[in-house]
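Review form for a predicted model. The reviewer records the input and the model, then writes brief findings.
Reviewer: anonymous (R2)
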Amino acid sequence: MNRYFIFFSYDGTAYHGWQIQPNGHSVQAQLQQALSVLLRQDTAVVGAGRTDTGVHAAMMAAHFDTDIQVDTTQLAYKLNRILPKDMAVDRVVAVGQDMHARFSALARTYYYYIHLSKNPFVRHYSCPIHYQLDFERMNEAGRILITYQDFGAFCKSHTDVKTTLCRVTEARWEKMDDNRYRFVITANRFLRNMVRAVVGTMIDVGRGRVSLDDFRRIIEGKRRSDAGESMPANALFLQNIVYPNLPTS
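Model under review:
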């Protein structure tokens, strides 16, 4: 049996997230259908993780197994021919059976975009903010965030997870121009809805509604009801996934 990784991107606007849904259009189903047509056999794909409804991926990874020897360059080309315009394959890579799209990932990075004045050209992929924010304080909150490991306060309620422990190694706001900023966060794993809840709480810090001491108490309390609102999905991008010793082609 041969195992292959697919690296691809997608605009999540039209999808009910990555994972196959009984009554919803998903990225996973779209990719599986395309692979099954090209390989002429039912082909299941395993993704690096789940993205929620409306969330985008600048870089997503998935693996599949087949008894066919695949020309990776040709498969990437053919996938791009039949996949919809809101999905694009970057490359297909042959890997060993010990490589797993989800469990072999060392780190994942998300970007969350906001803009501070009306902008018709970024509205589909950025969240409008209509008040002043203190980004220095928000970055202080980011430095606080990476000193903790339990992020139950930012996990969607009633989610069946075995642990709310994550190792966050990066959490900062970057200025893109006078009116646009993005939040960059990297961790070994993320909880469902975690990034959007973290951003919502940091926005409260930037507005002066939540102090830095309050921010610590929210994290330590581990109650989702204490944290800020979940920000809109359209401004969130899975930006990068890091794997060990992965071939480049």
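Findings: The chain is about 25% helix and 25% strand.
Further findings: The first strand starts at residue 2 and ends at 10.
Recommendation: see findings above.
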